[in-house]
Amino acid sequence: MKSKKWLIAAGVFGMVLTGSAGVYAGTQLETIKAYLNHGLAIEVNGQKFTPTGDQGKKLAPITYQGSTYLPVRSIADALKTEVKYDSQNNKVSIGSSSSSGGSTSSGNSGSTSPSTGTNTQAAGVKSKYLPADFPLPKDAKATSLIESNVGGNDKKVLLTYTTKETLLAVGTSYKDYYQTKNLSQNTQDIQADGFSIVGREDGKYAVTITGSVSATNKDLNEITVVWGEE
Prior knowledge:
Residues 90-122 are annotated as: Disordered. Residues 1-25 form the signal peptide. Pfam families: Cu_amine_oxidN1. It contains three helices and 14 strands. The protein is mainly beta. The strands form four sheets. It has a seven-stranded antiparallel beta sheet.
């Protein structure tokens, strides 16, 4: 897609960069050649967003081997999702634990029969918080799924899945789906090589969906869904 805007989700799932250069002795760090992407526009739920670090310093996305990475803490804060760094175990945790009302999962988390492509219980995707009629291709397989429900309110979903369905078909299915909803904002850019959909129903929810060819498997398409209650 010639004028495609990458949205937030890819960066949240792409926290860790790996490369093939030399490894620093005694660490898990590897040297790589990457680029600060100052020209990339970022939107969170349809609104322009600029990641920031300590003391409000602006942070640029990083582009490496065809993938784009965003700062996880800044993005999690924008989504009102908890993020913790465990220095002792060298681990980053995103989302609340199940005991506090949230959940974090990845990979194939469902075990039901394949869906007809019209609900959120596909064989490879099982979301607690997406609407029950949210369209999914029958072969959809989650590569990342982060869900939170802090304090019992404001459910948030950050989902990336792969499918062999064409980008045009998947994008059109979401376009048709949201045309039946009472949205105050509904914009689509759907093309054969990628799509972007942004929608909002005031006071209820906002959603951003993007699709592109998978960077790691050209036979698959990768779809990212960012959905959250307002």
